[in-house]
TrEMBL record:
Enzyme Commission number(s) from the entry: 1.2.1.88
Protein's recorded name: L-glutamate gamma-semialdehyde dehydrogenase
A single GO molecular function term of this UniProt record: L-glutamate gamma-semialdehyde dehydrogenase activity
Organism the protein comes from: Rubripirellula lacrimiformis
Catalytic activity: L-glutamate 5-semialdehyde + NAD(+) + H2O = L-glutamate + NADH + 2 H(+)
Entry keywords, A to Z: NAD, Oxidoreductase
Name of the gene encoding the protein in the UniProt record: astD
Annotated Aldehyde dehydrogenase domain residues: 11-458
Active-site residues, record numbering mapped to chain: E233
Length: 479
Protein backbone atom coordinates (compact mmCIF):
# COMPACT_ATOMS: atom_id res chain seq x y z
CA UNK A 1 0.00 0.00 0.00
CA UNK A 2 1.53 3.31 -1.06
CA UNK A 3 1.98 5.94 1.64
CA UNK A 4 1.54 9.20 -0.25
CA UNK A 5 -0.26 10.70 -3.23
CA UNK A 6 0.65 13.77 -5.24
CA UNK A 7 -0.61 15.46 -8.36
CA UNK A 8 0.81 18.17 -10.59
CA UNK A 9 -0.60 20.69 -13.01
CA UNK A 10 -0.39 19.16 -16.47
CA UNK A 11 0.39 22.59 -17.95
CA UNK A 12 2.90 24.05 -15.53
CA UNK A 13 4.22 21.11 -13.52
CA UNK A 14 3.30 22.91 -10.30
CA UNK A 15 2.12 20.70 -7.41
CA UNK A 16 -1.63 20.60 -6.88
CA UNK A 17 -1.93 18.05 -4.11
CA UNK A 18 0.45 16.19 -1.83
CA UNK A 19 -0.65 14.09 1.10
CA UNK A 20 -0.52 10.77 2.86
CA UNK A 21 -2.80 7.91 1.99
CA UNK A 22 -5.45 7.50 4.68
CA UNK A 23 -4.44 4.42 6.66
CA UNK A 24 -6.75 1.78 8.11
CA UNK A 25 -6.76 3.28 11.59
CA UNK A 26 -7.62 6.72 10.26
CA UNK A 27 -10.40 5.27 8.10
CA UNK A 28 -11.92 3.60 11.16
CA UNK A 29 -11.91 6.93 13.00
CA UNK A 30 -13.36 8.83 10.04
CA UNK A 31 -16.19 6.31 9.78
CA UNK A 32 -16.88 6.51 13.51
CA UNK A 33 -17.04 10.31 13.33
CA UNK A 34 -19.32 10.08 10.31
CA UNK A 35 -21.69 7.80 12.21
CA UNK A 36 -21.96 10.32 15.04
CA UNK A 37 -22.36 13.23 12.60
CA UNK A 38 -25.08 11.39 10.67
CA UNK A 39 -27.26 11.15 13.78
CA UNK A 40 -26.96 14.90 14.30
CA UNK A 41 -27.20 15.95 10.66
CA UNK A 42 -30.45 14.10 9.95
CA UNK A 43 -32.07 16.11 12.77
CA UNK A 44 -31.11 19.39 11.10
CA UNK A 45 -34.22 21.08 9.71
CA UNK A 46 -34.55 20.45 6.01
CA UNK A 47 -34.63 24.16 5.21
CA UNK A 48 -31.17 24.51 6.80
CA UNK A 49 -29.82 21.63 4.71
CA UNK A 50 -31.28 23.26 1.59
CA UNK A 51 -29.68 26.59 2.53
CA UNK A 52 -26.23 24.97 2.78
CA UNK A 53 -26.69 23.19 -0.56
CA UNK A 54 -27.65 26.49 -2.19
CA UNK A 55 -24.63 28.20 -0.68
CA UNK A 56 -22.39 25.45 -2.05
CA UNK A 57 -23.84 26.09 -5.52
CA UNK A 58 -23.17 29.81 -5.09
CA UNK A 59 -19.54 29.12 -4.15
CA UNK A 60 -19.13 27.03 -7.29
CA UNK A 61 -20.50 29.93 -9.33
CA UNK A 62 -18.27 32.47 -7.59
CA UNK A 63 -15.15 30.35 -8.10
CA UNK A 64 -16.15 29.04 -11.52
CA UNK A 65 -12.89 29.92 -13.25
CA UNK A 66 -10.71 28.67 -10.41
CA UNK A 67 -12.25 25.20 -10.24
CA UNK A 68 -12.36 25.00 -14.05
CA UNK A 69 -8.61 25.59 -14.18
CA UNK A 70 -8.00 23.10 -11.38
CA UNK A 71 -9.91 20.37 -13.24
CA UNK A 72 -8.03 21.06 -16.45
CA UNK A 73 -4.70 21.15 -14.64
CA UNK A 74 -5.15 17.94 -12.67
CA UNK A 75 -6.87 15.64 -15.18
CA UNK A 76 -5.97 17.37 -18.46
CA UNK A 77 -9.49 18.19 -19.65
CA UNK A 78 -9.77 20.94 -22.23
CA UNK A 79 -10.98 24.27 -20.77
CA UNK A 80 -14.36 24.24 -22.53
CA UNK A 81 -14.94 20.71 -21.25
CA UNK A 82 -14.00 21.62 -17.68
CA UNK A 83 -16.21 24.72 -17.89
CA UNK A 84 -19.15 22.55 -18.92
CA UNK A 85 -18.53 20.29 -15.94
CA UNK A 86 -18.55 23.24 -13.57
CA UNK A 87 -21.81 24.55 -15.06
CA UNK A 88 -23.43 21.14 -14.63
CA UNK A 89 -22.21 21.03 -11.03
CA UNK A 90 -23.72 24.44 -10.29
CA UNK A 91 -27.06 23.38 -11.76
CA UNK A 92 -27.00 20.16 -9.73
CA UNK A 93 -27.69 22.05 -6.50
CA UNK A 94 -31.13 23.36 -7.49
CA UNK A 95 -31.97 20.21 -9.45
CA UNK A 96 -31.26 18.09 -6.38
CA UNK A 97 -33.43 20.33 -4.21
CA UNK A 98 -36.27 20.02 -6.71
CA UNK A 99 -35.80 16.25 -6.85
CA UNK A 100 -35.93 16.01 -3.06
CA UNK A 101 -39.10 18.10 -2.91
CA UNK A 102 -40.77 16.12 -5.69
CA UNK A 103 -39.63 12.59 -4.95
CA UNK A 104 -38.47 12.30 -1.34
CA UNK A 105 -40.22 14.80 0.95
CA UNK A 106 -42.86 13.63 3.43
CA UNK A 107 -46.20 12.86 1.80
CA UNK A 108 -49.75 12.21 2.96
CA UNK A 109 -51.34 9.82 0.51
CA UNK A 110 -54.99 10.26 1.54
CA UNK A 111 -57.26 13.30 1.51
CA UNK A 112 -57.25 13.69 5.30
CA UNK A 113 -61.00 13.21 5.68
CA UNK A 114 -60.87 9.86 7.47
CA UNK A 115 -59.76 8.97 11.01
CA UNK A 116 -56.53 7.39 9.76
CA UNK A 117 -53.80 9.31 7.98
CA UNK A 118 -51.46 7.45 5.64
CA UNK A 119 -48.01 9.03 5.69
CA UNK A 120 -44.77 8.28 3.86
CA UNK A 121 -41.59 9.60 5.44
CA UNK A 122 -38.01 9.11 4.29
CA UNK A 123 -35.20 8.12 6.61
CA UNK A 124 -31.59 8.72 5.53
CA UNK A 125 -29.31 5.73 5.16
CA UNK A 126 -26.78 7.02 7.69
CA UNK A 127 -23.21 7.06 6.34
CA UNK A 128 -22.78 7.07 2.56
CA UNK A 129 -19.40 6.25 1.04
CA UNK A 130 -18.95 8.01 -2.33
CA UNK A 131 -16.19 6.68 -4.61
CA UNK A 132 -15.54 9.25 -7.32
CA UNK A 133 -14.05 8.98 -10.83
CA UNK A 134 -11.33 11.02 -12.51
CA UNK A 135 -13.18 11.93 -15.71
CA UNK A 136 -15.77 14.19 -14.05
CA UNK A 137 -14.08 14.72 -10.68
CA UNK A 138 -16.43 17.52 -9.60
CA UNK A 139 -19.76 16.79 -11.25
CA UNK A 140 -20.19 13.03 -10.84
CA UNK A 141 -19.34 12.69 -7.15
CA UNK A 142 -21.19 15.94 -6.57
CA UNK A 143 -24.26 14.39 -8.16
CA UNK A 144 -24.24 11.83 -5.34
CA UNK A 145 -22.91 13.96 -2.48
CA UNK A 146 -25.50 16.73 -2.88
CA UNK A 147 -28.59 14.48 -2.72
CA UNK A 148 -27.01 12.37 0.03
CA UNK A 149 -26.50 15.46 2.19
CA UNK A 150 -29.96 16.81 1.38
CA UNK A 151 -31.47 13.52 2.50
CA UNK A 152 -29.70 13.82 5.86
CA UNK A 153 -26.76 11.46 5.41
CA UNK A 154 -23.16 11.97 6.44
CA UNK A 155 -20.76 11.36 3.54
CA UNK A 156 -17.27 9.92 3.39
CA UNK A 157 -15.77 10.78 0.00
CA UNK A 158 -12.84 9.08 -1.67
CA UNK A 159 -11.99 10.90 -4.89
CA UNK A 160 -10.05 9.17 -7.61
CA UNK A 161 -6.38 9.09 -6.68
CA UNK A 162 -5.87 10.89 -10.02
CA UNK A 163 -8.13 13.79 -9.02
CA UNK A 164 -7.44 14.32 -5.34
CA UNK A 165 -6.88 18.08 -5.61
CA UNK A 166 -10.33 18.57 -7.10
CA UNK A 167 -11.80 16.40 -4.33
CA UNK A 168 -10.03 18.44 -1.68
CA UNK A 169 -11.32 21.68 -3.22
CA UNK A 170 -14.86 20.33 -3.16
CA UNK A 171 -14.72 19.36 0.51
CA UNK A 172 -13.32 22.78 1.42
CA UNK A 173 -16.12 24.45 -0.55
CA UNK A 174 -18.71 22.56 1.49
CA UNK A 175 -17.05 23.74 4.70
CA UNK A 176 -17.23 27.31 3.40
CA UNK A 177 -20.92 26.72 2.72
CA UNK A 178 -21.48 26.01 6.41
CA UNK A 179 -21.62 22.23 6.51
CA UNK A 180 -21.01 21.04 10.10
CA UNK A 181 -17.85 19.17 11.04
CA UNK A 182 -17.57 15.50 10.04
CA UNK A 183 -20.74 15.55 7.92
CA UNK A 184 -18.51 15.39 4.83
CA UNK A 185 -15.02 13.93 5.16
CA UNK A 186 -12.45 12.94 2.55
CA UNK A 187 -10.19 9.92 2.58
CA UNK A 188 -7.24 9.58 0.21
CA UNK A 189 -5.95 6.59 -1.68
CA UNK A 190 -6.59 3.95 -4.27
CA UNK A 191 -8.23 0.53 -4.28
CA UNK A 192 -6.91 -0.49 -0.85
CA UNK A 193 -8.41 2.62 0.72
CA UNK A 194 -11.80 1.92 -0.86
CA UNK A 195 -11.72 -1.70 0.30
CA UNK A 196 -10.96 -0.67 3.88
CA UNK A 197 -13.74 1.94 3.89
CA UNK A 198 -16.32 -0.48 2.47
CA UNK A 199 -15.45 -2.98 5.21
CA UNK A 200 -16.33 -0.45 7.92
CA UNK A 201 -19.38 -1.49 9.98
CA UNK A 202 -20.47 2.16 9.99
CA UNK A 203 -21.11 2.22 6.22
CA UNK A 204 -24.78 2.20 5.23
CA UNK A 205 -24.45 2.96 1.52
CA UNK A 206 -21.75 2.72 -1.14
CA UNK A 207 -22.04 4.85 -4.29
CA UNK A 208 -19.57 4.10 -7.08
CA UNK A 209 -18.90 5.67 -10.44
CA UNK A 210 -16.40 3.39 -12.16
CA UNK A 211 -15.73 0.36 -14.31
CA UNK A 212 -17.63 -2.91 -14.51
CA UNK A 213 -14.72 -4.68 -12.81
CA UNK A 214 -14.79 -2.26 -9.87
CA UNK A 215 -18.56 -2.58 -9.53
CA UNK A 216 -18.40 -6.36 -9.49
CA UNK A 217 -15.61 -6.34 -6.92
CA UNK A 218 -17.63 -4.14 -4.54
CA UNK A 219 -20.75 -6.25 -5.11
CA UNK A 220 -18.77 -9.32 -4.04
CA UNK A 221 -17.26 -7.51 -1.08
CA UNK A 222 -20.73 -6.58 0.22
CA UNK A 223 -22.05 -10.13 -0.13
CA UNK A 224 -23.96 -11.00 3.01
CA UNK A 225 -24.48 -7.36 4.01
CA UNK A 226 -27.99 -6.61 2.70
CA UNK A 227 -28.24 -3.59 5.00
CA UNK A 228 -25.70 -1.69 2.88
CA UNK A 229 -27.27 -0.05 -0.16
CA UNK A 230 -25.09 -0.26 -3.28
CA UNK A 231 -25.56 2.19 -6.16
CA UNK A 232 -23.40 1.47 -9.20
CA UNK A 233 -22.85 3.77 -12.17
CA UNK A 234 -20.61 1.76 -14.46
CA UNK A 235 -19.20 1.82 -17.98
CA UNK A 236 -20.67 0.94 -21.33
CA UNK A 237 -20.10 -0.32 -24.84
CA UNK A 238 -22.40 2.24 -26.34
CA UNK A 239 -23.82 1.91 -29.86
CA UNK A 240 -24.99 4.56 -32.29
CA UNK A 241 -27.11 3.46 -35.27
CA UNK A 242 -27.31 5.61 -38.38
CA UNK A 243 -30.35 5.49 -40.64
CA UNK A 244 -29.53 6.01 -44.36
CA UNK A 245 -31.73 9.12 -44.32
CA UNK A 246 -29.38 11.04 -42.00
CA UNK A 247 -27.36 13.87 -43.54
CA UNK A 248 -23.67 12.79 -43.76
CA UNK A 249 -22.45 16.13 -42.41
CA UNK A 250 -24.73 15.86 -39.39
CA UNK A 251 -23.68 12.26 -38.88
CA UNK A 252 -20.02 13.24 -38.95
CA UNK A 253 -20.50 15.84 -36.25
CA UNK A 254 -22.70 13.80 -33.93
CA UNK A 255 -20.84 10.50 -34.19
CA UNK A 256 -17.39 12.08 -33.82
CA UNK A 257 -18.59 14.03 -30.79
CA UNK A 258 -20.15 10.89 -29.30
CA UNK A 259 -16.94 8.92 -29.71
CA UNK A 260 -14.18 11.44 -29.09
CA UNK A 261 -15.41 14.15 -26.71
CA UNK A 262 -13.30 14.25 -23.54
CA UNK A 263 -10.78 12.05 -25.40
CA UNK A 264 -13.35 9.26 -25.30
CA UNK A 265 -13.21 9.28 -21.49
CA UNK A 266 -16.91 9.49 -20.82
CA UNK A 267 -18.82 6.38 -19.83
CA UNK A 268 -21.47 7.38 -22.40
CA UNK A 269 -19.04 7.75 -25.33
CA UNK A 270 -19.94 5.77 -28.45
CA UNK A 271 -17.76 2.71 -29.00
CA UNK A 272 -19.61 1.13 -31.96
CA UNK A 273 -21.37 2.80 -34.92
CA UNK A 274 -23.61 0.88 -37.33
CA UNK A 275 -24.34 2.01 -40.88
CA UNK A 276 -26.57 0.43 -43.54
CA UNK A 277 -24.65 -0.87 -46.55
CA UNK A 278 -24.91 1.10 -49.76
CA UNK A 279 -24.02 4.43 -51.30
CA UNK A 280 -25.62 6.51 -48.53
CA UNK A 281 -23.92 4.55 -45.75
CA UNK A 282 -20.57 4.89 -47.53
CA UNK A 283 -21.05 8.65 -47.77
CA UNK A 284 -21.84 8.86 -44.07
CA UNK A 285 -18.74 6.88 -43.10
CA UNK A 286 -16.53 8.93 -45.40
CA UNK A 287 -17.86 12.17 -43.92
CA UNK A 288 -17.11 10.81 -40.45
CA UNK A 289 -13.56 9.85 -41.41
CA UNK A 290 -12.96 13.23 -43.05
CA UNK A 291 -14.27 15.10 -40.00
CA UNK A 292 -12.16 13.02 -37.61
CA UNK A 293 -8.91 13.46 -39.53
CA UNK A 294 -9.38 17.23 -39.30
CA UNK A 295 -9.62 17.23 -35.51
CA UNK A 296 -6.88 18.97 -33.57
CA UNK A 297 -5.41 16.91 -30.74
CA UNK A 298 -3.59 18.82 -28.05
CA UNK A 299 -3.25 20.08 -24.50
CA UNK A 300 -5.54 22.40 -22.63
CA UNK A 301 -3.50 25.56 -23.22
CA UNK A 302 -2.95 25.06 -26.97
CA UNK A 303 -3.81 27.80 -29.44
CA UNK A 304 -5.79 27.27 -31.56
CA UNK A 305 -7.78 25.20 -29.12
CA UNK A 306 -7.73 21.43 -29.46
CA UNK A 307 -10.81 19.35 -30.13
CA UNK A 308 -9.45 16.29 -28.33
CA UNK A 309 -7.30 16.44 -25.21
CA UNK A 310 -5.04 13.90 -23.52
CA UNK A 311 -5.93 10.71 -21.74
CA UNK A 312 -5.60 10.75 -17.98
CA UNK A 313 -2.09 9.25 -18.09
CA UNK A 314 0.56 7.63 -20.22
CA UNK A 315 -0.42 4.29 -18.63
CA UNK A 316 -3.98 4.78 -19.88
CA UNK A 317 -2.62 5.34 -23.40
CA UNK A 318 -0.57 2.14 -23.16
CA UNK A 319 -3.65 0.19 -22.10
CA UNK A 320 -5.67 1.69 -24.95
CA UNK A 321 -2.94 0.71 -27.41
CA UNK A 322 -3.41 -2.88 -26.25
CA UNK A 323 -7.15 -2.57 -26.90
CA UNK A 324 -6.39 -1.32 -30.41
CA UNK A 325 -4.25 -4.39 -31.05
CA UNK A 326 -7.00 -6.66 -29.73
CA UNK A 327 -9.46 -5.09 -32.17
CA UNK A 328 -7.04 -5.65 -35.03
CA UNK A 329 -6.69 -9.28 -33.93
CA UNK A 330 -10.48 -9.64 -34.11
CA UNK A 331 -10.29 -8.71 -37.79
CA UNK A 332 -11.03 -4.99 -37.70
CA UNK A 333 -9.25 -2.89 -40.31
CA UNK A 334 -8.07 0.69 -39.64
CA UNK A 335 -9.78 3.58 -41.42
CA UNK A 336 -7.82 5.95 -39.19
CA UNK A 337 -4.95 4.01 -37.58
CA UNK A 338 -3.38 4.44 -34.17
CA UNK A 339 -1.27 7.55 -33.78
CA UNK A 340 0.16 8.88 -30.55
CA UNK A 341 1.64 12.36 -30.25
CA UNK A 342 5.36 12.92 -29.77
CA UNK A 343 4.55 15.89 -27.53
CA UNK A 344 2.95 13.91 -24.73
CA UNK A 345 2.56 10.14 -24.28
CA UNK A 346 -1.05 10.62 -23.10
CA UNK A 347 -2.08 12.35 -26.35
CA UNK A 348 -3.77 9.86 -28.69
CA UNK A 349 -5.38 10.82 -31.99
CA UNK A 350 -8.91 9.51 -32.59
CA UNK A 351 -8.99 6.04 -34.14
CA UNK A 352 -11.66 4.55 -36.41
CA UNK A 353 -11.69 0.83 -37.19
CA UNK A 354 -13.97 -1.02 -39.60
CA UNK A 355 -15.49 -4.28 -38.32
CA UNK A 356 -17.51 -5.05 -41.47
CA UNK A 357 -17.23 -8.72 -42.31
CA UNK A 358 -15.60 -9.93 -39.09
CA UNK A 359 -16.76 -13.38 -37.88
CA UNK A 360 -19.80 -13.67 -35.61
CA UNK A 361 -17.59 -14.83 -32.77
CA UNK A 362 -15.56 -11.64 -33.12
CA UNK A 363 -18.77 -9.56 -33.18
CA UNK A 364 -19.75 -11.15 -29.87
CA UNK A 365 -16.34 -10.38 -28.38
CA UNK A 366 -16.53 -6.80 -29.63
CA UNK A 367 -19.86 -6.28 -27.88
CA UNK A 368 -18.42 -7.50 -24.59
CA UNK A 369 -15.35 -5.24 -24.56
CA UNK A 370 -14.92 -2.12 -22.45
CA UNK A 371 -12.41 0.62 -23.19
CA UNK A 372 -11.94 4.24 -22.20
CA UNK A 373 -10.46 6.38 -24.93
CA UNK A 374 -10.87 7.70 -28.49
CA UNK A 375 -11.43 4.47 -30.45
CA UNK A 376 -14.58 3.97 -32.52
CA UNK A 377 -15.50 0.79 -34.39
CA UNK A 378 -17.81 1.18 -37.39
CA UNK A 379 -19.67 -1.63 -39.10
CA UNK A 380 -21.83 -1.87 -42.21
CA UNK A 381 -24.98 -3.98 -41.94
CA UNK A 382 -27.47 -5.25 -44.49
CA UNK A 383 -30.42 -3.36 -43.01
CA UNK A 384 -31.58 -1.41 -39.98
CA UNK A 385 -32.96 -4.49 -38.22
CA UNK A 386 -29.54 -6.10 -38.33
CA UNK A 387 -28.00 -2.87 -37.00
CA UNK A 388 -30.45 -2.85 -34.09
CA UNK A 389 -29.65 -6.48 -33.31
CA UNK A 390 -25.90 -5.84 -33.24
CA UNK A 391 -26.35 -2.66 -31.19
CA UNK A 392 -28.23 -4.66 -28.56
CA UNK A 393 -25.65 -7.46 -28.60
CA UNK A 394 -23.73 -6.39 -25.51
CA UNK A 395 -23.98 -7.12 -21.79
CA UNK A 396 -23.78 -3.37 -21.18
CA UNK A 397 -26.71 -1.01 -21.33
CA UNK A 398 -25.71 2.54 -20.51
CA UNK A 399 -26.41 4.73 -23.54
CA UNK A 400 -27.32 4.48 -27.22
CA UNK A 401 -28.41 6.79 -30.02
CA UNK A 402 -30.27 6.62 -33.31
CA UNK A 403 -29.55 9.19 -36.01
CA UNK A 404 -32.27 9.66 -38.62
CA UNK A 405 -35.34 7.52 -39.09
CA UNK A 406 -38.89 8.13 -37.90
CA UNK A 407 -40.39 8.31 -34.44
CA UNK A 408 -41.80 4.81 -34.89
CA UNK A 409 -38.34 3.53 -35.81
CA UNK A 410 -36.90 5.25 -32.75
CA UNK A 411 -39.50 3.65 -30.48
CA UNK A 412 -38.52 0.26 -31.87
CA UNK A 413 -34.89 1.11 -31.18
CA UNK A 414 -35.65 2.09 -27.56
CA UNK A 415 -37.50 -1.18 -27.01
CA UNK A 416 -34.74 -3.31 -28.49
CA UNK A 417 -31.44 -1.73 -27.56
CA UNK A 418 -31.71 -2.24 -23.79
CA UNK A 419 -30.00 0.91 -22.53
CA UNK A 420 -30.89 3.32 -19.74
CA UNK A 421 -30.21 6.45 -21.83
CA UNK A 422 -31.45 6.28 -25.43
CA UNK A 423 -31.24 9.42 -27.59
CA UNK A 424 -32.63 10.33 -31.00
CA UNK A 425 -30.76 12.65 -33.37
CA UNK A 426 -28.25 13.57 -30.69
CA UNK A 427 -25.00 12.17 -29.30
CA UNK A 428 -24.82 9.17 -27.01
CA UNK A 429 -23.27 11.52 -24.45
CA UNK A 430 -26.38 13.70 -24.21
CA UNK A 431 -27.91 13.67 -20.73
CA UNK A 432 -30.31 16.09 -19.02
CA UNK A 433 -30.08 17.01 -15.35
CA UNK A 434 -33.85 16.76 -14.91
CA UNK A 435 -33.90 13.12 -16.07
CA UNK A 436 -32.63 9.87 -14.56
CA UNK A 437 -29.18 8.72 -15.57
CA UNK A 438 -28.21 5.09 -15.27
CA UNK A 439 -27.47 1.91 -17.10
CA UNK A 440 -28.87 -1.59 -17.32
CA UNK A 441 -27.08 -4.93 -17.40
CA UNK A 442 -23.38 -4.56 -16.66
CA UNK A 443 -23.72 -0.77 -16.67
CA UNK A 444 -25.53 -0.46 -13.36
CA UNK A 445 -27.65 -2.13 -10.70
CA UNK A 446 -31.07 -0.48 -11.03
CA UNK A 447 -30.03 2.65 -9.13
CA UNK A 448 -30.23 5.45 -11.71
CA UNK A 449 -28.49 8.68 -10.76
CA UNK A 450 -29.10 12.13 -12.22
CA UNK A 451 -32.42 13.53 -11.02
CA UNK A 452 -33.24 10.15 -9.47
CA UNK A 453 -30.11 9.94 -7.31
CA UNK A 454 -32.17 11.24 -4.40
CA UNK A 455 -34.06 7.92 -4.41
CA UNK A 456 -31.11 5.82 -3.25
CA UNK A 457 -30.18 8.24 -0.47
CA UNK A 458 -33.02 7.32 1.91
CA UNK A 459 -35.51 4.60 2.80
CA UNK A 460 -39.30 5.06 2.83
CA UNK A 461 -41.07 4.67 6.16
CA UNK A 462 -44.85 4.02 6.08
CA UNK A 463 -47.12 5.14 8.92
CA UNK A 464 -50.81 4.74 9.74
CA UNK A 465 -51.58 7.60 12.12
CA UNK A 466 -54.63 8.12 14.36
CA UNK A 467 -55.19 11.10 16.70
CA UNK A 468 -55.99 8.70 19.57
CA UNK A 469 -55.84 4.94 20.13
CA UNK A 470 -58.59 3.14 18.22
CA UNK A 471 -61.56 1.85 20.22
CA UNK A 472 -62.08 -0.92 17.70
CA UNK A 473 -60.85 -4.33 18.77
CA UNK A 474 -58.75 -5.66 15.88
CA UNK A 475 -59.69 -9.22 16.92
CA UNK A 476 -63.39 -8.53 16.42
CA UNK A 477 -63.22 -9.90 12.88
CA UNK A 478 -62.78 -13.44 14.26
CA UNK A 479 -65.35 -13.30 17.09
Amino acid sequence: MCTSISSFDSRTGQPLFAGDVTDWGQIAEVMRQAGVAADLWRRHPVDQRIQIVRRYGEILAEDRDKIRDLISGEVGKLPWDSAGEVSASIAKAELSIAAWQQRRSQQQVDDGSGPVRRIVRYRPLGVALVLGPFNFPLHLPGGQIIPALLAGNAVVFKPSEQATAVGQWMVQAWKRAGLPDHVLQMIVGGVETAVAAIDSPHVNGVFLTGSRAAGRAIHRQLSGRPGVLLALELGGNNPVVIDPSADPRVVAGLVSFSAFVSAGQRCTCARRAFFVEGRLGDQQIQALVDRTTQMRVGLCDDSPAAHVGPLISAAAATSLRETYQTLLDLGCSPLIPWQASDRNPALVHPVILDATGIPESAEATLGEMEWFGPILVVQRTGNLDRAFSLAASTPYGLSAALLGGSEDVFQRFVDQVGAGVVNWNGPTTGAAGALPFGGLGDSGNHRPAGYYAIDFCSDPVASLQRPAPSADDPWSVVE
